[in-house]
């Protein structure tokens, strides 16, 4: 997949191992949408449940070039047994939750953090909230209408 975050000369070869970032979180919180939007600068037009997928590009940190792979995992319980197969060599986990779903937030402590600590106890974790603007806008409008 060609990515807009790939900002290097095609003849340049990265001297570093790719940085692997694995996203986890409840199903339908917006992980895939976030990754597609980040890598292509386009919002996906339809929802397609993810089993596993990955996206990539090149980033620069302090003038150093790094290849980055973004691993997208399925949050549904049906995939609990195979999801950890994507965890080896992860440099950072991105736990995603929806601000529109209290359950997805509670599952950080109940499910996702324990799962990461079991399989990759020393890997850093970043917490990322995802806001579904359309749904939130409708909720705010109906709340204001009631007041």
TrEMBL record:
SMART domains: RAB (SM00175), RAS (SM00173), RHO (SM00174). It comes from the Eukaryota. It is a lipid-anchor. GO terms for cellular component: plasma membrane. SUPFAM superfamilies: P-loop containing nucleoside triphosphate hydrolases. One of its GO terms (biological process) is ameboidal-type cell migration. Keywords: Cell membrane, GTP-binding, Lipoprotein, Membrane, Methylation, Nucleotide-binding, Prenylation. It is found in: Cell membrane. One of its GO terms (molecular function) is GTPase activity. The keyword Thylakoid does not apply. Pfam families: Ras. Belongs to the small GTPase superfamily. Rho family. This is Uncharacterized protein.
């Amino acid at each position: 997949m060609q990515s807009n975050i790939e900002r290097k000369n095609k003849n340049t070869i990265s001297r570093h191992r790719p940085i692997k970032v694995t996203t986890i979180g409840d199903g339908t919180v917006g992980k895939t949408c976030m990754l597609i939007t980040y890598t292509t600068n386009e919002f996906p037009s339809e929802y397609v449940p993810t089993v596993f997928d990955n996206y990539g590009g090149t980033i620069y940190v302090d003038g150093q070039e790094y290849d980055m792979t973004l691993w997208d995992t399925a949050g549904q319980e049906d995939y609990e047994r195979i999801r950890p197969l994507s965890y080896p060599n992860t440099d950072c986990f991105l736990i995603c939750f929806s601000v529109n779903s209290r359950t997805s937030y509670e599952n950080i402590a109940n499910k996702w953090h324990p799962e990461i600590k079991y399989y990759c106890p020393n890997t850093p974790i970043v917490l990322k909230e995802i806001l579904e603007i359309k749904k939130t806008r409708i909720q705010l409008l109906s709340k204001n209408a009631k007041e």
